[in-house]
Amino acid sequence: MECIFLFPNYQLFSTTPDSDLADFAAEMLAFIDRHGELLPLIDADLDAYGLRKKAQRARQRQAARAVLPALPALLSNIPEAEPSVAPRTLETGRPRMPALVVFLFLLMRGRYGSVSDQDACERFCEYKTIEAVLSPRGLRLPSRQALVDNLNAVTNATRQAILDAQLQDCLTEELDDFKEICVDSTAVCANSAFPNDASLAARSLQRAFIELWTLREQGVVTFTDGWMPSWKDTIVCLARDINMARGKKAPSKRRKLYRKMLDTMDKAMAPMKELYKTLFAEDAARLAPQLQAKRERHLLDGVKALVNAWKAGNQIRRRVFNHEAVPMDEKLLSLADADAALIIKGDRETVLGYRPGLARSRAGFIVDLALDKGNTADSGVLVKTIEAVTGRVGDVPEKVTTDDGYASQKNREAALKLGVKLITFSGAKGKKITPAGEWDSAEAIEQRARRSAVESLMAVMKDGYFFARMRRCGLENVRAEMLEKIIAYNVDRILMVRARKAKEAQEQEEKMRNTA
Predict the structure, then answer these.
(1) What DSSP letter does each residue of 230-284 carry, written as one string?
(2) End-to-end CA distance of the chain
(3) Model pTM greater than 0.85?
(4) What is the pLDDT of residues 449-504, one digit of tens each?
(5) Dihedral (C-alpha) 492, 159, 97, 14: value to the nearest 10 degrees?
(6) Which of 87, 308, 356, 418, by CA, is between 20 and 30 Å from 179?
(7) Is the dihedral of CA 161, 166, 169, 171 positive or negative?
């Protein structure tokens, strides 16, 4: 039987579906309606991003005018641009992505880990909740690349302002008083492979070759290969053989392979170094602006790769042949993320990444993120965390609980001086620096028992909010990614605590009614 619909409706649901995403979206909209001051901050970030793009286009037009002096008819159509003065205002042009859309997808990126991979794009296109949120406000789903560019234009200062506003809402609704916090750190993997000397050296030198060949294929530079392709292939094969060496004789076999690899790298790097010096000395003014920018980018990337190859080779010499312990700050650990470090935390598995510290409130909200470059000691960030929480919620926390990694007499005295009434360190070191009467008090015992809550928080963040491995590279980009995930977690936590309090109030009301 054939059915003909005179008024087809392509929507499966006429109302917003009852789902976790719908609750999440409703809370985001209610939050941004309460805090209208946040949208101008996002607009200011987008304006700054637009001005940077405009300045880049102005420099390209100015360069085009300089390299095309023989075409006055064409140049008359190119607007004037002062290379020394950056544009200060944006003119009317293509419609800007609304700040509300940027805000919504900024938090959804924190909740779902990405807005640009294939799974995320398909999810957003199929979700009726997204359509129900955007359509009533005259908004539509943006394209993938435009969305990523605009989200990345938002500064960390704006993300911090969103987190501050969240916590102020919690105070206003009395969801938490933030008088108790628990602090701990965790190891988070960077978006990079675990360091391997042979692989780092081979991949760095391979990248230096590729950048040169890319420039030659585009007609920007000219040179002859010579023995370089053969040396490159030899180094790659030697790195593979080093990594696959097994058995009792593996150490001596690796030393021989390392020696051959270093000799081949020295032969390859000598002509490449001279070639890069020659290319940098050449005048590129004859090239079009786009080719100039492309030439400079590839040359810089190639030189950086050549420097990394030298670092990796020097690292191999010191470690394998001189039997030196190379200091961490002198090691080449990653080609993708220069800010990543080896995180050594107790007896746990060493990871390449970052060591963020999180401060959890009594009701389970994250009130602060402490993130520095390297494998920072916990004891060095405790006071800064207490000060940050104080500035964010407007009052010094009365009780601070943490583990033995933060324990020191200096930290204890500094925390008490700031106004903390009770600070507890779980562990032998904390017991040693804490007066016996205070250590054995019922209040201190209760606080130490609650310290495991922050361990649970770490597990929830890693399993539910993609906190175990970062997608972005670089300290500030990683900080931005972590802040987005923290804000998204707090949204879910607000919904949970609010529902719990409403249920408790309802049960109390029923109990009083039954008693009466």
Answers:
(1) HHHHHHHHHHHHHHH--STTHHHHHHHHHHHHHHHHHHHHHHHHHHHHHHHHS--
(2) 62
(3) yes
(4) 988 899 999 999 999 999 999 999 999 999 999 999 999 999 999 999 999 999 99
(5) 10
(6) 356
(7) negative
